[in-house]
Amino acid sequence: MVPRALTIAGSDCSGGAGIQADLKTFTVFDVYGMSAITALTAQNTLGVSEIFPVPAEFVRRQIDAVVTDIGVDAAKTGMLANRAIIAAVAAAVREHRIDRLVVDPVIVAQSGASLLEPQARAALRDELLPLAMVATPNAPEAAELLGMSVQTVADLREAARRIVRLGARAALVKGGHLVDGDAVDVLVDGAEIHELRAARIATAHTHGTGCVLSAAITAGLARGRPLIDAVAAAKRFISRAIAAGLAIGKGNGPVNPMAGPEEVDSSESRVDSRSKS
User: Fold this and answer.
1) Which residue among 10, 208, 220, 245 is the active-site one?
2) pLDDT tens figures, 107-156
3) Where are the domains of the chain?
4) HEC string for the chain
5) What pTM was estimated for this model as a whole?
6) CATH (residue range 4-275)
């Protein structure tokens, strides 16, 4: 049977992020993609101008429809907009026993627009993170969720540990927002700390980076890959997608998921692992 992946996220009408980027990524990884749309956005490469959340009950109906008929091998969440949607998604994940869940805690758009109501952030931390096989915040998102400064690789490690203590089985805290050196992401699971490093790419065309990376991890999990293998492959993939970023629109263009995972040379990134401490 073809691997099946579900994205539970917002729609980006410009195609660079959200469910559009997720479905492109699933296709590149030869995974059958499905979606439960949580919000409509009016946005482009210049920013987000308007958000229209989908009623929470209808988000739940979308999830029920695909899970009860087609089935889901892995799922990911992206933009969830408000507390009611988070509660509906968490209930669906529990009821349908979606085990391979990637939680990408989308809080603020690259342009600075808020994509999650402030009062919903505790619900994301307390209700959804404990259901995650892996959570994938970037440094600012981790700082917002945990109330700590995340400025160094040591901070990435500590933030990942804290997210695991909140209940997630693993946490990948992404260091793309750090200023100096390689692009370093830190994965903490139950036993080890893994530092995933790749050369930092100088480009403004990074719209959708977090969506594409988390979708690539989800696709790997849907194909039955162990978590560290899925994350390492996704890290290589996103480096390729950023390098092939598209200079379209008048602002920050999107990364290019059509770069393809099989074209990526594994020497482009490396994983350093150590025992968890």
Assistant:
1) 208
2) 877 766 788 888 899 999 999 999 999 999 999 999 999 999 999 999 99
3) 4-275
4) CCCEEEEEEEEECCCCCHHHHHHHHHHHCCCEEEEEEEEEEEEECCEEEEEEECCHHHHHHHHHHHHHHCCCCEEEECCCECHHHHHHHHHHHHHHCCCCEEECCCCECCCCCECECHHHHHHHHHHHHHHCCEECCEHHHHHHHHCCCCCCHHHHHHHHHHHHHCCCCCEEEECCCCCCCCEEEEEECCCEEEEEEECCCCCCCCECHHHHHHHHHHHHHHCCCCHHHHHHHHHHHHHHHHHCCCCCCCCCCECCHHHCHHHCCHHHEEEEEEECC
5) 0.93
6) 3.40.1190.20
